Amino acid sequence: MKNIFNETYDALEDYFISINDKKYRATQLYDFLYKKRIYTIDNMNNIPKNTKEMLKKDFSFNFIKIEKKQTDENVKKYLFRLLDDSLIESVLMYHDYGISLCVSSQVGCNMGCKFCESGRLKKVRNLETYEILEQVLLIEKDLNIKITHIVIMGIGEPFDNYDNVMNFIRIITSNKGIDMGSRHITISTCGLIPGIKRFMNDFSQVNLAISLHAPNDKIRNKIMPISKVYKLNELIKVVKEYINKTNRRVTFEYVMLENTNDSLECAKELANLLKGINCYVNLIPYNETENIEFKRSKKNRILEFYDIIKKNGMNVTIRKEFGTNISAACGQLRTKREDL
Ligand code: SF4
After folding, report:
1. Mean pLDDT, all residues of the chain
2. Which of 76, 166, 299, 336 is the S-S candidate for 92 at Cβ 3.0 to 4.6 Å?
3. How far apart are CA 333 and CA 156, in angstroms?
4. Which atom of ligand 1 is nearest to the CA of 189?
5. What's the gap between Cα 294 and its chain centre?
């Protein structure tokens, strides 16, 4: 039986047509699920009895469960238990401009970035669309809030679960339901080129962030195994194609690792690599974790690095830190049972 929260609006229209019902039932159902937030079919008062029976027969309305939540100032980390007992995490952040949620897209991750706590657990499976969407629905209900921004940057590589993640975006941006603006959504990839190519055709208005983390293949190969498959020059080429096609600015994420990728030569090389590209560079102070030997770059070095990028005329920021006390910061999410 399919989970109802996997269904895009178009898929539901097709479903109602296939059971010889009215196409507009999709509008009614989306209205209950995503506007009124009513999840019990019997409480959907203007849907006829026959349709309700069909829906009960064909769909489950199951939810994942909130297992635990932790708070650190303006950050909340949620641990979810999925129906098969797998665990995933999401991080909610309160900003001046709104409330963002960083969602997970897989149980574990196969990309093996050496500095990343989230990827220490190998991929167990992709999340289904409903498991991504329910992270949003449950947290909104739990806190009685409206999440304004989504970043798909939690556990997992979203382009390694392309179809389910894209259906999540279709559902959350549908004007029949939640109607979140595409530009309020950011998807982050470690550089899966086929995914970027598909994405530029499918979702030109959703923001793209590239986890770059090195200015050349030599360093990147050491910290991001994916770089052995997709070389930096190919990655940069496809990013340029993306910008040409979509006219959107791309963000390059660069985690600052002491004595690994933070030399001033690296900064110059990075500026050179990205010269002429319509982009932001986001320098991320590394969040050290007990299991991984990388160290955070010294504050001074981050500032020197920043200056070099800036002097080369690029848009550069140093990421504000969130949630380090509850291991909710970037690259610190994990799904180990000791977290319970
Ligand atoms: S940084 Fe992202 S892609 Fe890399 S291992 Fe961690 S979760 Fe996976």
Report:
1. 93
2. 76
3. 10
4. 3
5. 24
| Alpha-carbon separation of residue 291 from 106, 109, 246, 248 (angstroms) | 21, 16, 40, 37
Residue 118 CB less than 6 A away from ligand 1? yes
Residue with the smallest CA separation from ligand 1 atom 5 is 119
Distance 19 CA to ligand 1 centre (A): 42
pLDDT at 339 over 50: no
H-only helix segments in the chain: 9-18, 25-30, 49-58, 129-143, 162-173, 193-202, 217-223, 226-229, 232-246, 264-274, 299-311
Confidence category of residue 336, pLDDT binned at 50, 70, 90: very low
Pick 30 or 339 by higher pLDDT: 30
Distance CA 290, CA 309 (A): 31
User: What confidence category does residue 14 fall into, taking pLDDT thresholds of 50, 70 and 90?
Assistant: very high
Tell me, yes or no, if 13 is annotated catalytic.
Answer: no
pTM value?
0.94
pLDDT value at residue 323: 67
Residues 6+ apart with CB under 8 A from 179: 173
Q: Is 128 annotated in the active site? A: no
Q: Please name every residue paired with 60 in a beta bridge, in sequence order, or none if there are none.
A: 3
Q: How far apart are CA 192 and CA 210, in angstroms?
A: 9
pLDDT value, residue 333: 66
